[in-house]
Amino acid sequence: MALIHNLGFPRIGKQRALKFALEAYWAGTIDQSTLRAKGAEIRKQNWALQAQAGVELLPVGDFAWYDHVLATTVMVGAVPARHHSSDSNPLDTLFRIARGRAPSGCVCAASEMTKWFDTNYHYIVPELSAEQRFSLTDSELFTHVSEAQQLGHTPKPVLIGPVTYLYLAKCADEPFDKLALLPQLLEVYQQILNKLAAQQVQWVQIDEPILALELDDAYRQALKDSFTSLSGHGVKLLLATYFDDVSHHLDDIQDYAIDGVHFDWLASTVDIQALDKAVGNERVLSLGVVDGRNVWRANLSSLHAQLHPIAEQRGEMLWIAPSCSLLHTPVDLEQEQQLDSELKSWLAFATQKCQELQLLRHALHSSDTTAIDRYSAAVKARQSSTRVNNKRVQQSVAALSAQDAQRQSAFSKRAKTQRQALQLPLLPTTTIGSFPQTQAIRQARRDFKNGTLDSQAYHTQMEAEIRYVIEEQQALGLDVLVHGEAERNDMVEYFGELLEGVSFTQFGWVQSYGSRCVKPPIIWGDVARSQPMTVHWSRYAQSLTQKPVKGMLTGPVTILSWSFVRDDLDNPTIAKQIAVALRDEVVDLQNAGIGIIQIDEPAFRERMPLKTSHWQDYLDWATYAFRVAASGAEDKTQIHTHMCYSEFNDIIGAIADMDADVITIETSRSHMELLNAFEHFDYPNEIGPGVYDIHTPNVPDVASIKALIHKAAQKIPVERLWVNPDCGLKTRQWQETRAALYNMVEAAKELRQELN
Fold first, then answer.
1. On the chain, which terminus has fewer CB atoms closer than 10 Å, C or N?
2. Taking a C-beta distance cutoff of 8 angstroms, is the pair 238, 206 a contact?
C-alpha cells in the first residue's frame, strides 16, 4: 500500500501567527521564551493538520524562524564573524544575520537575500571563506524531532543537502572552490544523522534541488560522494528532488547510496517506467503527484489511471507526496468564506493537498474510484467554464506584432527629450515607490473592505496620506517623488483586485521571507483591464507638487510570477494579456500628466528557468511582454523599471533589450558587486543602483552612501547614475525612513558639489 508523506508545510500558521510573534519579539513586546512557545504551538498545529489529512511521515525541520537555509547556516556553525556576539544565543545570531539587528544587540550589515530557485520564497545567502570551519552548533532540529515524537507522530527530518547548501553559498572574500569545503561539512552532517538515529528516527529527507539544474562534472561527483559519505549512519536516506525534470541525472541517481528518491513528477517529462528503473525495486520511489507550488485542485481520476499500474507493482515501495514542500501554498482553503463557490471548487491549499493524497491512496488500494471521480468533477467543469475565456482579450493578444513592442524613438533620442522635459540635476534622487504602511493606513483599508468605511471617507484618508508623503519628500529634497502607495496592500495583489480574470483571497497568505507574507492573486481566466487602476492617485499626487511624480505599475512578468497562475494556458500568452492591460494604463497615466512611469519587474531575473538551455525562450517572451507594456509611452515620458536580487552578468543583453529609460536595482547588500555585469557591457541607458538596504532597520550614514555611489561610478558614467534605496519602503518605520533618505539626499548633494 502506497505510503503518504510530505516534504514540508507552511510554517506561518493559519492566521500568520509566526509573523506576528516574530515582529513582537523584534519590537521587544514579548521575550524569547514566549516566541519559542508560539513556535512550538504552530508546529503542533501543523503536524496535527497533516496527520488528520492522512500524512504518515511528517516533515520535521521544515519550520524555521526566518528561512530554512539560514537555519542550516546556524546549525552548521557558518556564522559570519560580524554577526558573532558573546552574550547572544543561536536565535538572536540568526536574526542578526538576516536583519543586521537582534534584540540582544549588534547593528551590523545583514547578509544578502535572494530567491529560492525559481520560487517566490527568499533565503539568506550563506557567506563562506576558504578557511571556513563547520561545527554542529545548534540543536533545534533535535528538539523539534522530540516534540513530534512526544505528540505521537512519526517524524521525517528534512535537511538541505550539503551540496545544494554549498552551491547556494557565496564566497565571502576572494573566489575559491566551494566544493573543497564539502568533506568538512559532511562530517557535521554525519553527526546530525548519528544524533537523529539515536532519537530512533528511521527516515531522513535530504533535499538536493540543484539536481534540477544542468550541473558540471564537479558537482555531479560531489553529489555521489556526499551520499556515499552519509550512508550507514543508522537512518534511511530519502533524496528529494523538485522544481524541474531531473531525467538528465538519472544515471547518476541510480548509483547514489540512498534508500529512496522523491521526484517532482509534475515537473518531469521522463516516463514513469524510467524513474522506476533508475530507483530499482529495493529502494522507495516517491512521486510528487499534487502541485506543491500552485492552488489548483488535482485531477485525481487522471492521476489514478497513470499511477495504478505502478502502485500494483511496487506496493509499499511506492510513496506519494506533493511535488515539493507545501511552503509555497496557503494553509487552508476552508478559511475562505468570500470566494464564489465555483472558483473555490477549483482550488486546493496545503491542507486540502494532503487530503487529496489520502483520497488517491484509498483509490489505489481499493480500486474504488467513486470518491476521486466525484472530487475530480470540478476540475473537468473548470476546463469547460465560460468564465475562463474572453474572446476580446484573446483577439487583442493574437493581433500583437513586433511593432507593438517598440517605443517611438531610440533611447538616445528619447533621453534628450526627457532631459529637456524633466530638468533633473546630476545624480537625481528618488525612491522605489512605497512608503511606510502605518497602522492607520492598514486599518483604513480593512475598514473599507469590510464596509465600515464608505468610499468617500476612504478616498479622503488616502489622499491625506498621499499629501503627507509628498510633503515629506519635498522637505527631504528628493528630486523625483512618488505617491507612496498607501492604497496598495501589495504590489501584485493590488492589481489582481482590479483586473478581470483574477481573484484574491482573504487568508491565502504565503511566506516571502522572515515575517514578510504576501497574498498572491489567483489568475483563473483571460486577463483584462476594465478601467484605470492607478490614475486617480497619481494625478492627485502630481497636483500637489511642481516636481515630477512617478506613476507606479507592476510589470507583466512580475504579476504573472507572483500570482497563482492558471495551468491551462501557457505563461507567454498570460504575460501578453497582462502587458496589453498595462499598456492601456501607461497611456492613461501619460494623458493625466504623469511624465515618469515605473513598471516594476523584480521577478524578471528570478523567473528564469532553472536550466540554462531554456533561458533564451523565456527571455524572448519576457522582454517582449515588458516592451508591449511600455510601448504606449511617448518619447518625453520616461519609463523606469525596478529589479530585485538580480545577478545580471548572464542576462545583461536581455536587460538592455527591455529598453527602459532608467533601471533601478538592488545592490547595497552586495556592496555594488552586482554592477560587475555592467563593467564589460556598454549598457546604454540610465541606472539607479540601490545605495542602502531597506530590509534592515539600520540607517546608513552619508559616508557609506557616498562610498557606494563612488563605487558605482567606476562602472557607470556618473551622468547616467540615479541615487535611490534598494527597494520599496513599506515595511520600514517613518523615523528610520526619514533619517535614511535624509542621508541619501545629503550624499547626493555633496557628490554634486565634489564632481562640479
1. C
2. yes
